[in-house]
Amino acid sequence: MVDLSVTVGGVRMKNPVMPASGSIAEGMADVVDLGRLGAIVLKTITPDLRQGVKPPRVVEYTDATLFSIGIPSKGPDYLLNHTVPFFDKFGPPVIASISADTVEDFGKLAGYITDPRIAAIEANISCPNLRAHGRAFGMDPVASAQVITAMKANTTLPIWAKLTPNVGDIAEMARCVEGAGADAVITANAILGMAIDAETMTPRLGNVVGGLTGPAVKPVILRMVNQCAEAVKIPVIGCGGIATGEDVVEYMLAGASAVQIGTTNFVHTSAMEQSIDWVADYCTRKGIARVSDLTGALMLPGDQPSEQRGAVAL
Amino acid sequence: MTMTATAQAEAPAGRFPRAENRCRVVSNDPVNAEYRLLLVEAPATGLTAYAGQFFHLLCPTTHTDQPFLRRPMSIYRIDRENRRLGFLYKVTGKGTRALMTLGPGDELNATGPLGVGFDLPAGTQHVAMVARGVGLATLAPLARFAAERGARVTAILSARAPDLLMSRDELEAAGAGVIEVNDLDGTSKPEDVADRLREIHAEVPIDFMATCGSNRLLGLTRGLCAEWGIPGQVAVEAFMGCGLGMCFACVVPVRDAEGKEEMKRVCYDGPVFSVNEVTTW
Ligand SMILES: Cc1cc2nc3c(=O)[nH]c(=O)nc-3n(C[C@H](O)[C@H](O)[C@H](O)COP(=O)(O)OP(=O)(O)OC[C@H]3O[C@@H](n4cnc5c(N)ncnc54)[C@H](O)[C@@H]3O)c2cc1C
Ligand SMILES: Cc1cc2nc3c(=O)[nH]c(=O)nc-3n(C[C@H](O)[C@H](O)[C@H](O)COP(=O)(O)O)c2cc1C
What we know:
A: eight-stranded parallel sheet, four-stranded antiparallel sheet, B: Elongation Factor Tu (Ef-tu), domain 3, 2 domains, seven-stranded antiparallel sheet, six-stranded mixed sheet, 15 strands, Dihydroorotate_DH_1_2 (chain A), oxidoreductase (chain A), Dihydroorotate_DH_I (chain A)
């Protein structure tokens, strides 16, 4: 029997597979057994009530999507009174995710939702910082660190910092949030993109820009996971482009301690369960006793020092 | 929800109320120049579908078309006796073009049944439905359901041209009285359709209306429902991501009784809404 359990950022999970924030909701429980997941990650909430951005909200590519949803949020009371009780009954640890317009609000919201039924809180720092003219917190190392410090000051729950891939040096961001006390980093949120309709000469998304997600982003995020894992001691959670158990293994080899599956859940509701089964078979086949042994087990050719992996020559 | 309860009594669901149903294609033939009928053999969960619900179809990949997301299709025919489901679809883009390539024996992965369908009030005597184009696909099973429950059904089918009108037979077989109108001879103008319905209402009062497929027909239905003080429902379409209420892509503005507007998910809160809730779509 392979030991699939992992402990990530203060949370013990029976396997390393969980949904990415915003990729499942109550409807998923109508189709799959949420009890099988390593953890249940909830969609980001904000302190205020939000309706989200103007439709259209999705554009499709061959193996990716460009979504702009805008974090519709029913606020923290709805989370505690409805969402958490709904997901708590399935068994796996429940991870909340929060976002806010200011550092102080991140802190206050983390304190407000601190609850024994919540195992950790993700800091979604990919959202715009109102004090910095809407530039994402996550693009600014100082603001990112401030968010984590403010959250840690207001809650005893572990904090997972969800990094944005829309930065030049993601490893530096990982180091900053680690320094501020984050218990894990999630690498990463969606890649900023844009789509235009040539016929109508207008943007395809109501919000003009959106986040590129799905299998196509895998090579980019896999590289970032590897860079983050080399930069920090806290666990790295891989997120972006994962669709299969084989992807899960690749992310773990690159340095991830656990993974999150997002867009794939929209197309293949059984993907998370199938991935768990695939990883178990893989470990059996490879004679690997503990899935956690895969983390960082990538075998690099001896002549490739890690410094050279920060650049590319074509 | 009277309908939901009824549908569940008719066919017990499995462990989960919805599933990725692995269906087997029975046939996939054209019904006219634009529309095709896809008939599949479905597992038990799929057969619990009721009128107004939809399935999210995984379209095959072809040389030219690689649709990534699933495509929503209303349930057009629910044949529990032969364990079959039917979809009536219009070939419009890469997803439906890819669907066209499915042949007998192929597998179709259909997630569902999804969404909240029509909720026919108990004791309804006379249902009037107005459908435009493929909107008819959504209303056909409601006609059958209403007729089975002893209600009279009047269906007005609207299309650009007479040869694009479909499913007269399907509806008549379901026990509906069918009236066809089209743009070419001008009979499809909403005011004329409204007058036809007023005449019918004067003879046998209509106590429930359903519509799908056109904003103008929604306006007409809402007006007549208000005029007669009867309930009416509309099946709404929107671009979808997941079909399970998870991604929030397919939202439409919906107004509650106090007039407060909220973005609701077509796939999970709908696709069927009260005609008074939906503003436009
Ligand atoms: C609840 C529901 C039920 C439906 N039932 C039927 C039906 O019974 N028969 C039928 O022919 N059509 C139906 N449609 C519309 C059908 O889903 C679209 O025609 C189909 O998705 C087009 O896909 P495509 O790739 O061929 O076209 P493309 O234009 O290439 O599609 C591109 C994208 O736009 C989306 N899209 C395009 N048109 C529509 C539309 N009208 N509504 C929603 N999304 C759209 C597609 O899903 C896809 O993501 C329904 C839509 C919804 C929401
Ligand atoms: C529709 C949609 C909604 C999302 N909502 C959130 C969210 O609320 N909070 C968050 O941190 N990330 C959100 N994300 C980002 C995902 O959690 C994930 O980081 C991203 O999709 C990359 O993973 P994937 O390629 O597996 O989809 C969302 C993504 C999508 C596609």
